[in-house]
C-alpha cells in the first residue's frame, strides 16, 4: 500500500472520493463558466470547487490536500480574485464608467463567449469565494486539531 | 478634481490596497507603504471634493453605466454613488483619521506579528466606511456596513488574547443582530416603495402619509444603526470592543466607525429619507440624553485608560445625537461640528493611550504616574485632547458643545441644556482623573528608563493635537460655509427643518 493510506479515512471512502472528486471539480468549473447563461455563477461555482478540495482533505488527510492547495496559496489566490474583479471594474472607467461592460457588443447572446466582462467577473468571484471558503475550512480544522491534541 | 468617474475610487483605492497588500506581503515595507499611500490618496481626494462642491451641489455616478436603461424604463436602475455636502464632510473626517492612524501604525504595529494582515483589514474597513458614505442605494449601504463591520470584528480580535477574542465575539454577535435588523428594515422599505435608490425612495415616501409599516422601519433602523453608533441602551459591546483592539484601531473605531456606520446613517436616513418625523426627534433626544449621562458617569469609575475613553465615546455620541434630535439648523451645525471634534480628540486620546502602552506597557491608571517628564509630546497632546474633550475654551470641543447647548436653549429644551452642561462638568472630572494619574505626580521606579515614542507616532499625535487646538477656527464664516455649512444644508434642505 502506498503511503497515502496511512492517514485519512477508509479505503472505501478514498476510492469513492478518487472517482467523484474530479467530477465535482469539473461541475464547479462548468457552473462558473456558464454563470451568465444558466443559474449559478462565480459564487456558487466557487463553493463547489472549494468543496472538491474539502472532499480531498477529509478523505486523504491534510498532508495530501496541502500538496495540492496549501494554506499559504489560498490567501494569494483569494487576493488575486479580488484584484482581478476590481481591475475589471476600474478598466470600465476607460470606456463609460465604473463597472462599465466594455466588451459587451462582442459575442452572440446565449453563446458561451458573450455577455462581455460578466464571465470574467464570474471567474474572479469564483477564485475569491473558492479560495476563501477553503481557507475558512482549513482554519476550522486546524482549531479542531489543536483542541483534540489538548485533550 | 472630483468627477462622476472618480467617485468610485474612494472605495476602489482602499480595496485595491487591501488585496495588493496580501499579494505582496513578502516584500518588506509594502504593507506600511500601501497603508499610508492609499489613505493619503483618499484624504486628498476628499479635500478636493469639499473645495469643489458648491452649496446644494451633488455629484452622481451611475455604476455599470445603466444610463440607457434608465431613460427607457423611466426610473433609476443600478447603483448610484452620490457625493454631496454631508458626504464630503464625512469623507474628510474619516480619511484624515485613517491617514493619521496609518502613519501611527507604521511604528506601533511593530509590536504585533503579521503587520500585513492588519493593514489589509484596516484598508478593508476604510473601503467599507467610504462606501457607506458615498452610496445612494439602500441595499448597497447594508453591504458596505457589513464590510466595515466584519473587518472591525477581526481587527478587535487582532491581539488574539483571551480578552480580545471574548470582546470580538460579543461585538460580532451584537453587530450581526444589528445588521439583521437593518436588512429587515431595507427589505420592508423596498417592498413598500419598489425601489432601493434613496432619492427615489424619498420622492415616493414624501407622497404618502406614514403607515404603521414605516414606524416599524423606524424602530428597526433606530435599533440597528443605534447599535452601530453605540447609543444607550445598545452600547454594551463598545466598552469591551474598543479597548481590546490595538490602539490605532481603537482610534478608528471610536473616532470614525461608530460615526460613519451609526450617526451618519441615522442622520441620512431619518432626515433625508423620512423627512425627520417628530417621534424620531423625541427618541433621539431621549436616547442622546441617556447616553450622555450613562457614558459619563460610568467613565468616572474606570481605571483602565482605554475603557474610560470608550465610555466617554458613548457619552459624546449622546451629545451628537442630542444635537441631531433637536433638529434646528444651529443644533445640526453643533452636532456635526461635535462629530468632527469628537473624531479628532477621541482618536488623539486613543493614540495617546497607545503611546503610553507602547512605552510603559500598562493601561491601568493606578500603575502610571509622572510620565510627563519622560514623554513630553504624549503628555502635551493628551492634555490638548483632554481639554478639547472636556470643553475648555479655546479648544475645539468647547465651541461645538456650546453650540449644542445654545441650540437646546433656543429650542426651549431648558432641561436638556442643563443636563448637557452638567454632563460636561462630569466630563471634566473624568478627564482630569486620567491626566492626573497618568502624567502628574511622582515618576515610578519601573518607568525610570522609558523614552518618548518613535517619530511616526509623534507626527500623528502632533497633527491631531493641532487640529484639536485650532479646530474652532472652522466656525469662521468663510470656512464654515465651505465645510460645515454644506453638510448642514444637506440635512436641513430635504427635511425642510
Protein topology:
The complex is a heterodimer of chains A (about 150) and B (about 500).
Chain A: H1 11-33, H2 42-60, H3 62-68, H4 71-91, H5 118-150
Helix pairs in contact in A: 1-2, 2-3, 2-5, 4-5
Chain B: H1 9-23, H2 30-52, E1 59-62, H3 67-73, E2 80-83, H4 85-108, H5 115-134, H6 138-156, H7 162-193, H8 198-206, H9 212-229, H10 238-244, H11 247-273, H12 278-300, H13 305-326, H14 329-360, H15 371-374, H16 376-390, H17 396-410, H18 414-439, H19 455-470, H20 477-482, H21 484-495
Antiparallel strand pairs in B: 1-2
Helix pairs in contact in B: 1-2, 1-5, 2-4, 2-5, 4-5, 4-11, 4-14, 4-19, 4-21, 5-6, 5-11, 6-7, 6-11, 7-9, 7-10, 9-11, 10-11, 10-13, 11-13, 11-14, 11-21, 12-13, 12-18, 13-14, 13-17, 13-18, 14-16, 14-17, 14-19, 14-21, 16-18, 16-19, 17-18
If helices are DSSP runs of H or I spanning 4 or more residues, what is the number of helices of chain B? 21
Residue runs with pLDDT of under 50 for 5 or more positions of chain A? none
Instruction: Name the helix and strand elements of chain B from N-terminus to C-terminus, one letter apiece.
Output: HHEHEHHHHHHHHHHHHHHHHHH
Q: What is the percentage of strand-forming residues of chain A?
A: under 5%
Helix content of chain A: 55-70%
> How many strand elements of chain B?
2
Largest sheet of chain B: 2 strands, antiparallel
Indicate the structural class of chain B.
Answer: mainly alpha
Q: In what order do the strands lie side by side in the largest sheet of chain B? A: 1-2
Amino acid at each position: 500500500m502506498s503511503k497515502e493510506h496511512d492517514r485519512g479515512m477508509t479505503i472505501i471512502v478514498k476510492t469513492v472520493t478518487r472517482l467523484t472528486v474530479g467530477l465535482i471539480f469539473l461541475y464547479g468549473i462548468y457552473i462558473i463558466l456558464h454563470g451568465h447563461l444558466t443559474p449559478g455563477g462565480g459564487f456558487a461555482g466557487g463553493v463547489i470547487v472549494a468543496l472538491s478540495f474539502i472532499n480531498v482533505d477529509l478523505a486523504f488527510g491534510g498532508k495530501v490536500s496541502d500538496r495540492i492547495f496549501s494554506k499559504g496559496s489560498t490567501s494569494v489566490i483569494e487576493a488575486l480574485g479580488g484584484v482581478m474583479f476590481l481591475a475589471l471594474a476600474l478598466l470600465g472607467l476607460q470606456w463609460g464608467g465604473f463597472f462599465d461592460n466594455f466588451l459587451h457588443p462582442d459575442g452572440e447572446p446565449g453563446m458561451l463567449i458573450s455577455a462581455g466582462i460578466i464571465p470574467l467577473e464570474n471567474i474572479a468571484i469564483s477564485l475569491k469565494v473558492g479560495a476563501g471558503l477553503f481557507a475558512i475550512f482549513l482554519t476550522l480544522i486546524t482549531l479542531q486539531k489543536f483542541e483534540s491534541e489538548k485533550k | 478634481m472630483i468627477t462622476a468617474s472618480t467617485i468610485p475610487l474612494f472605495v476602489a483605492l482602499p480595496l485595491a490596497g487591501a488585496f495588493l497588500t496580501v499579494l505582496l506581503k513578502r516584500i518588506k515595507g509594502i504593507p506600511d507603504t500601501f497603508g499610508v499611500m492609499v489613505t493619503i490618496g483618499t484624504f486628498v481626494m476628499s479635500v478636493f471634493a469639499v473645495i469643489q462642491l458648491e452649496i446644494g451641489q451633488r455629484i452622481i455616478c451611475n455604476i455599470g453605466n445603466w444610463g440607457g436603461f434608465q431613460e427607457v424604463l423611466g426610473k433609476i436602475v443600478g447603483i448610484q454613488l452620490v457625493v454631496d455636502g454631508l458626504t464630503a464632510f464625512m469623507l474628510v473626517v474619516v480619511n484624515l483619521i485613517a491617514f493619521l492612524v496609518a502613519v501611527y501604525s507604521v511604528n506601533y504595529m511593530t509590536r504585533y506579528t503579521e503587520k500585513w494582515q492588519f493593514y489589509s483589514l484596516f484598508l478593508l474597513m476604510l473601503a467599507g466606511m467610504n462606501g457607506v458614505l458615498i452610496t445612494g442605494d439602500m441595499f448597497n449601504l447594508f453591504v458596505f456596513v457589513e464590510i466595515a463591520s466584519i473587518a472591525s470584528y477581526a481587527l478587535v480580535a487582532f491581539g488574539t488574547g483571551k480578552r480580545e477574542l471574548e470582546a470580538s465575539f460579543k461585538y460580532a454577535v451584537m453587530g450581526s443582530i444589528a445588521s439583521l435588523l437593518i436588512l429587515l428594515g431595507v427589505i420592508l422599505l423596498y417592498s413598500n416603495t419598489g425601489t432601493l435608490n434613496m432619492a427615489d425612495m424619498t420622492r415616493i415616501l414624501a407622497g404618502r402619509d406614514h403607515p404603521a409599516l414605516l414606524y416599524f422601519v423606524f424602530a428597526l433602523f433606530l435599533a440597528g444603526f443605534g447599535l452601530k453608533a453605540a447609543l444607550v441602551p445598545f452600547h454594551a459591546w463598545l466598552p469591551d470592543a474598543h479597548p481590546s483592539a490595538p490602539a490605532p484601531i481603537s482610534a478608528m473605531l471610536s473616532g470614525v466607525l461608530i460615526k460613519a456606520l451609526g450617526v451618519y446613517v441615522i442622520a441620512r436616513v431619518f432626515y433625508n429619507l423620512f423627512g425627520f418625523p417628530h417621534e424620531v426627534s423625541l427618541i433621539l433626544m431621549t436616547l442622546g440624553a441617556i447616553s450622555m449621562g450613562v457614558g459619563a458617569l460610568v467613565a468616572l469609575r474606570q481605571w483602565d485608560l482605554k475603557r474610560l475613553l470608550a465610555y466617554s465615546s458613548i457619552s459624546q455620541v449622546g451629545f451628537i445625537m442630542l444635537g441631531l434630535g433637536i433638529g434646528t439648523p444651529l443644533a445640526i451645525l453643533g452636532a456635526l461640528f461635535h462629530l468632527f471634534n469628537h473624531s479628532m480628540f477621541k482618536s488623539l486620546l486613543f493614540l495617546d493611550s497607545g503611546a503610553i502602552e507602547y512605552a510603559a506597557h500598562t493601561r491601568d491608571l493606578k500603575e502610571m504616574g509622572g510620565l510627563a517628564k519622560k514623554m513630553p509630546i504624549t503628555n502635551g497632546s493628551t492634555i490638548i485632547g483632554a481639554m478639547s474633550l472636556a470643553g475648555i475654551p479655546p479648544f475645539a470641543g468647547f465651541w461645538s458643545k456650546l453650540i449644542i447647548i445654545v441650540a437646546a436653549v433656543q429650542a426651549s429644551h431648558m432641561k436638556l441644556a442643563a443636563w448637557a452642561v452638567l454632563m460636561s462638568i462630569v466630563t471634566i472630572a473624568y478627564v482630569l482623573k486620567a491626566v492626573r494619574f497618568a502624567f502628574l505626580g511622582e515618576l515610578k521606579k519601573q518607568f525610570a528608563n522609558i523614552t518618548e515614542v518613535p517619530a511616526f507616532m509623534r507626527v500623528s499625535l502632533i497633527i491631531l493635537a493641532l487640529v484639536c487646538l485650532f479646530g474652532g477656527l472652522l466656525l469662521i464664516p468663510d470656512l464654515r460655509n465651505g465645510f460645515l455649512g454644506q453638510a448642514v444644508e444637506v440635512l436641513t434642505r430635504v427635511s425642510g427643518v
